[in-house]
Automatic annotation (TrEMBL):
<keyword id="KW-0328">Glycosyltransferase</keyword>
<protein>
    <submittedName>
        <fullName>WecB/TagA/CpsF family glycosyltransferase</fullName>
    </submittedName>
</protein>
<keyword id="KW-0808">Transferase</keyword>
<dbReference type="InterPro" id="IPR004629">
    <property type="entry name" value="WecG_TagA_CpsF"/>
</dbReference>
<dbReference type="Pfam" id="PF03808">
    <property type="entry name" value="Glyco_tran_WecG"/>
</dbReference>
<dbReference type="GO" id="GO:0016758">
    <property type="term" value="F:hexosyltransferase activity"/>
</dbReference>
Length: 253
């Protein structure tokens, strides 16, 4: 199942619905593909506009999905002649959709990221919602760069688990680099899913649906975590708009 992509801020982003995105990930997992999947919001694409290594990584990735409503709006504006979906592929919803859609195929999941406490709550929540879901690995890596030996040990654990989908909640852009690295080393679908671990576990509150649908989730998160996110918002949003305008003029180079 191949998804159509359109360029956004110089990065190819899939023009797809949430349902089809979930179906695609399950199909990739069942086929045993080696794939890095990235949930792209305005901040991700702003970083990619500044960081050539991240931009090249996203351009070479198996799949980039429009996680931010701003990305959806930018694509619809830049590609007015195309009929593009109006809804984003929101990371936490995709996470749950894939768990749901993957049950008939007995898809095996691995959770990588965050803290042991958040992972324990996340796994408990997932097992409550999806009692038959197969979670074959749970791992909270150190909050630093791994050594070569630690990277190899992590890869051995993922391989031994038989995981078909590895969910990475390591923060942007670290999780994107790790997804690409792991996909190149062992066949599985590696999804850089961002704050989904915190939201689904209940560790952090989610924005109300009306704010999400109107592209205001960033404001809710900024009010919830101002000290951590104010630089990201004040720098990221203008840089994203600039990158979109630049990309609209020049296209993906």
């Amino acid at each position: 199942m191949t998804l159509t992509t359109v360029p956004c801020a110089g990065v190819p982003v899939a023009a797809t619905t949430p349902a089809r995105a979930a179906e695609t990930l399950v199909a990739m997992a069942v086929r045993g593909e080696a794939a890095d999947v990235h949930l792209c919001n305005a901040y991700t694409l702003a970083l990619a506009d500044r960081d050539r290594a991240l931009r090249d990584l996203l351009r070479a990735s198996a799949l980039n999905l429009p996680d931010g409503q701003g990305v959806v709006w930018a694509n619809r504006l830049a590609h007015r002649g195309s009929s593009l979906p109006r809804m984003r592929v929101y990371g936490p919803d995709l996470f749950l959709d894939v768990f749901r859609e993957g049950r008939p195929a007995d898809v095996r999941h691995y959770l990588l990221g965050s803290t042991p406490e958040v992972l324990d709550r996340l796994a408990a929540e997932l097992r409550t919602r999806f009692p038959q879901a197969r979670i074959v690995g749970i791992e909270s890596p150190p909050f630093r760069e791994l050594t070569d030996e630690e990277r190899e040990s992590q890869l051995v654990r993922i391989r031994a688990s038989g995981a078909q989908i590895v969910w990475l909640g390591l923060g942007t852009p670290k999780q994107d680099h790790e997804a690409a690295r792991l996909a190149a080393a062992h066949p599985a679908v590696y999804v850089a899913v961002g704050a989904a671990f915190d939201f689904i576990s209940g560790n952090k509150p989610q924005a109300p649906l009306w704010m999400q649908h109107h592209g205001l989730e960033w404001l809710f998160r900024l009010c919830s975590e101002p000290r951590r996110l104010w630089r990201r918002v004040l720098w990221g949003h203008p840089r994203f708009i600039w990158a979109v305008c630049k990309g609209t003029r020049k296209g993906c180079r």
